[in-house]
Design goal:
single chain; alpha/beta; six-stranded mixed sheet; 21% strand
Length: 571
């Protein structure tokens, strides 16, 4: 009997906590491929925690993989801190509440105080609770915008951003030493509540979160008087109550909800890929808009840390990209703060380095610094924490990622679609009072600074051979980089794995003061560029393009040529 068969037999004997697992294990008996897929590897724990398909086996999300990870986390926390506590939250996904309560029971059995939300809440509310309750870690059960068959488990550090590399590595070491059937301490959730070691998070914490979000708004009177008409969809996730509450508080009253996507439902029946980056999630809302037009459509992903928008452009509704919303927020917050004499000295906008450089052009106009960091909002959270430690938190204007994640205010250390929705609506209301839609404002920005077309190509690689192929592609690009792309010279090469930047013309190398990451950035003439990086959560390589020109058509042509040339490296 091989190791996979032994594991399968062990699970059939031991996996009794969830009847669904028993049924699944019985159903796959004799099906070698099905068994192998579930047991050929264990889910890997990293700074993004765990993520996988829900089901039985070491390569699936279930109470045993969750409990094993939590026992590893408990061992790590007890080795680092005296009397640590942990905050827990969960989203609308299948078994999220089960996994959250099971994790709480493991922590409680290890003598660790647990604060858990009494209902599903957005990810930024977990970040807020970690800091508010002075916890040493946080757990949220979510798989963000993945399809319904997925779930995940993310850990946070004491400052409220996702766990750092060092902490994740130590935790993973403890997880690997933990036998999921014999080494995990457990306590019944209700028993933990009765003993007081598991405590529901008080209503006051909810209220303080809402007040913190609303304090980020600059001119609520614009919202009250604008007559802004809104359609909102929480995509069957966690945003329904918090977003509606905050919008109501700041004066946005004309809000219609997409009924099919209003209530929590981990099956996501109308949007199998609940990602606000794609048009499909807006289809139900756009149908509503045909019956009664609105100014703006908002869609938040299931854990409500990202938001996408569609804007009434007169003859149609235009979907704005994550980059465009980031640019709009930077322009609005900087210009409005200046107008209201609220712009601090040395303001700073923080973004991931794959986010459009149009943000830099906007920031320069207002004398603001732009800090570009590695992909992953935890780096933005770390930077805000550093500013706060130096007494300079007021310098922070907004943080953003091109993948539709934004944060203003210092109440959280992760992207926050609740505050983003509030500011987007206030921004839309303000510009409506000036007779402009957000689409028209974006066109004005392009007219002022030039067309910055940002695009993304994804190349998927399957199985273990695919992972090898991805490594070979990155090595080839690193060792034999292109000299030109789309007829433009490569003027600079930033290798974030080696932490060095090469000026191609002079041959001079400089240090990149960021954590090492397997990313290559090819700077081109005319403010164009190409960034290549493997995904941190999926077996794919992502290529980000910046094509700059006077018109959208010219920029699109440049992007198409760049894309065609880079595709050759992926084959």
């Amino acid at each position: 009997m091989n190791n996979i068969d032994k594991l399968y037999a062990l699970w059939k004997e031991k996996a009794v906590l969830d009847k669904d697992l028993i049924d699944e294990l019985n159903d796959i008996e004799g099906k070698e491929n099905e068994i192998e897929d579930r047991f050929y590897q264990s889910l890997t724990f990293g700074t993004a925690g765990l993520r996988g398909i829900i089901g039985a086996g070491t390569n699936r999300m279930n109470v045993y993989t969750v409990n094993q990870a939590t026992q590893g986390l408990a061992t790590f926390l007890l080795s680092e801190y005296e009397n640590p506590s942990v905050a827990i939250a969960y989203d609308s996904r299948i078994k999220s509440d089960l996994f959250a309560k099971s994790a709480a029971g493991v922590l409680a059995a290890n003598g660790i105080k647990v604060y858990i939300y009494k209902e599903l809440v957005p990810t930024p509310m977990l970040s807020f609770a970690v800091r508010k309750l002075k916890c040493k870690s946080g757990i949220i059960i979510t798989a963000s915008h993945n399809p319904a068959e997925y779930n995940g488990y993310k850990c946070y550090d004491p400052e409220g951003y996702q766990m750092t590399d060092e902490a994740a590595e130590k935790t993973y070491g403890f997880i690997q030493k933990t036998d999921m059937f014999s080494d995990v301490r457990t306590m019944d959730f209700d028993e933990g509540v009765e003993k007081g070691i598991i405590e529901y998070i008080a209503d006051e914490v909810y209220e303080e979160f809402y007040k913190s979000v609303e304090s980020c708004c600059l001119s609520p009177e614009e919202c009250i008087n604008s007559g802004l008409k809104l359609i909102y969809t929480p995509l069957n996730g966690t945003g329904n109550k918090p977003v509606r509450r905050v919008l109501s508080d700041i004066g946005i009253k004309d809000v219609r909800i997409v009924k099919e996507q209003e209530n929590p439902d981990g099956n996501f029946p109308t949007c199998p890929y609940p990602n606000p980056e794609i048009r499909q999630v807006f289809e139900c809302g756009l149908e509503m808009a045909k019956e009664e037009p609105c100014d703006l459509l908002l869609a938040t992903d299931p854990d409500c840390d990202r938001v996408g928008i569609a804007v009434n452009a007169g003859d149609e509704y235009k979907l704005m990209t994550g980059n465009e919303v980031g640019v709009l927020l930077a322009e609005y917050l900087l210009s409005r703060r200046k107008e209201l004499s609220l712009l601090p000295e040395n303001p700073v906008v923080v973004k991931s380095f794959v986010t459009t450089s149009l943000v830099d052009a906007v920031a320069r106009k207002y004398g603001a610094e732009v800090k570009s960091l590695l992909t992953g909002f935890k780096y933005i959270g770390e930077y805000i924490t550093m500013l706060e430690a130096k007494g300079e938190a007021d310098r922070f204007i907004v943080g953003m990622e091109e993948s539709y994640g934004y944060l203003s205010g210092i109440h959280a250390r992760d992207k926050d679609a609740v505050v983003a929705c509030a500011l987007i609506c206030e921004m839309a209301a303000y510009y409506k009072s000036k007779g402009k839609s957000l689409y028209e404002v974006m066109e004005d920005i392009y007219a002022e600074h030039g067309m910055y077309l940002n695009a993304l190509d994804n190349y998927a690689f399957k199985g273990s051979s695919g992972m090898v192929k991805m490594g070979e592609i990155m090595d080839d690009l690193r060792n034999c980089p292109p000299q030109t792309i789309a007829g433009m010279k490569v003027t600079g090469i930033s290798d974030f794995k080696k932490s060095e930047k090469l000026d191609v013309a002079t041959g001079v190398k400089s240090v990149i003061d960021l954590p090492s990451s397997n990313v290559l950035y090819f700077e081109l003439e005319n403010s164009c560029g190409v960034i290549v990086r493997p995904s941190g959560t999926e077996p794919k390589i992502k290529i980000y393009y910046t094509a700059c020109a006077k018109t959208r058509e010219e920029a699109q042509e440049i992007k198409n040529i760049m894309s065609a040339e880079m595709k050759k490296y992926m084959e």
